[in-house]
Amino acid sequence: MTNxxxxxxxxxxxxxxYGADREVLSDISFTLYPGSFYFLTGxxxxxxxxxxxxxxxxxxxxxxxxxxxxxxxxxLPREHLPAMRRRLGVVFQDFRLVPHLxxxxxxxxxxxxxxxxxxxxxxxxxxxxxxxxxxxxxHARPATLSGGEQQRVAIARAVIGRxxxxxxxxxxxxxxxxxxxxxxxxxxxxxxxxxTVVVATHDLHLLQKMPESLIMRLDKGRLxxxxxxxxxxxxxxxxxx
Amino acid sequence: xxxxxxxxxxxxxxxxxxxxxxxLISRRRFxxxxxxxxxxxxxxxxxxxxxxxxxxxxxxxxxxxxxxxxVIAAAGGLALRNAANTASAQLSxxxxxxxxxxxAQARAQQAAASVAVLRAQPGILSVRxxxxxxxxxxxxxxxxxxxxxxDAVPVPALxxxxxxxxxxxxxxxxxxxxxxxxxxxxRVDAQASxxxxxxxxxxxxxxxxxxxxxxxxxxxxxxxxxxxxxxLGSHRETIEIxxxxxxxxxxxxxIFQRAVGIDAAVGAGVGLVLALGVxxxxxxxxxxxxxxxxxxxxxxxxxxxxxLLVPLGAVLLAMLTARLCVRAxxxxxx
Lengths: 241, 334
Known about the structure:
The structure holds two protein chains of two kinds.
Chain A: E1 9-17, E2 23-32, E3 37-41, H1 48-55, E4 63-68, E5 71-72, H2 81-85, E6 88-91, H3 103-113, H4 118-131, H5 147-159, E7 165-169, H6 177-192, E8 196-200, H7 204-209, E9 214-219, E10 222-224
Helix pairs in contact in A: 3-4, 3-5
Chain B: H1 5-15, H2 23-27, H3 33-36, H4 59-91, E1 94-99, H5 104-119, E2 124-129, H6 132-143, H7 148-151, E3 157-163, H8 169-182, E4 186-190, H9 191-194, H10 196-233, H11 236-244, H12 249-287, H13 301-331
Antiparallel strand pairs in B: 1-3, 1-4, 2-3
Helix pairs in contact in B: 4-10, 4-12, 4-13, 5-8, 10-13, 12-13
């Protein structure tokens, strides 16, 4: 009898096409294990954002099987999806902040949706915004924030609930290198606390800063495995060869 | 790959201990089991995903206008119904006996005899000889008051009687026959027959008011539907974001339903106040016309409760529309 290792996400022969166009993702199979840190790389248009959308349940695959937290996410009844989404933290490429809410209220939103009492919301959200350098912009609305500031609010919102799986789509694309590394350290801290992290990026500097991370590479909609990320147990690499 | 200077300077940040991240991250995991399963209630302060001032769409103004028009039309219909009912109650059992006798003494005798005969009839509730003062007051607008010339005009004597039940032609004929012996100059009329055309007109107006209320209610439904959909359409992106952050369909629909309900309540309140102002103004003007049919059309408390149903219905409709629209939008998402 073999013990099945715990899995955060499992994709088997997943494909995605939009409408009648050709498949943007083909034959995607991989498994994300708890506590691992993954980078998803690939050229623009390789399908990184599409793959992340499948992971964070914004899109249904055209075919294949997706399991999240041990549950079939394709056939899961609709009423159970919100609970699954609350275990995810997502940093969207276009930030997707609620325009009429302040930075504070945007970061507090996942907690309030989860029913956390207001007493427990205020201080952590303030601390988080202070940590990402936005203490003085706490009450500013997204439209008055720079791209980098919006990105930091989006990241703070994604991590505030300490998700089981953090998915970030180009999370450092609009911030300076120092802030990028600082944010990456936040992801790393979360990862050390048990959160599985998937970061889509084409920023090679980031990959260098996390030599212990695993890398999945997308090329024209197909996944390659340059570092053994797709094997089990995942083989830690020493950087890109 | 070569790290630039900023990257080198940032190395220390990456090497920082985990304790340097916000205490929240290392202290506790917010998403407790019951929260994850969506069983917990929303926080003490509801997840504020709509602007504090409401959705700021056309909802309040549209609802205000439609509620005002509907309330005024409904009030008109109710007033007409009240006027018709009052007049009908006053006149349905009433008869008037006119003594068309030119000689004053004979007229007075026949009037007195008519009173006695009427009192002896079955089903009579009351009989009253109209005093001369009242008759003078009735004809004063046409003939003036006082003066020998006027006194010389032979004005018929009048006797009012009220019977139980409706006045049928057979009943009227029987009373006429009974009066013939004692008061040959008597002519008997059912009071309701004089106002038959007026009742018919009032009934027509009532149906018109009902039709108007129906049309306005239909227009209100359509406007509220459109306004709610427009307001929600402009917040579609917010709905998507909240959906992706783990908001349940019920939660999101509830929040928007509440916001739309508040907007609609503001509009309905304004519309009701404006309508009541118009109704009060019109009521004052009509009251100035004096008693009679118009006086019987005054609205009563029960009518007020009926009118209150209009804004209440508009708010409930708006909330239901919001719920259905948000649910439909969410169903289109995964």
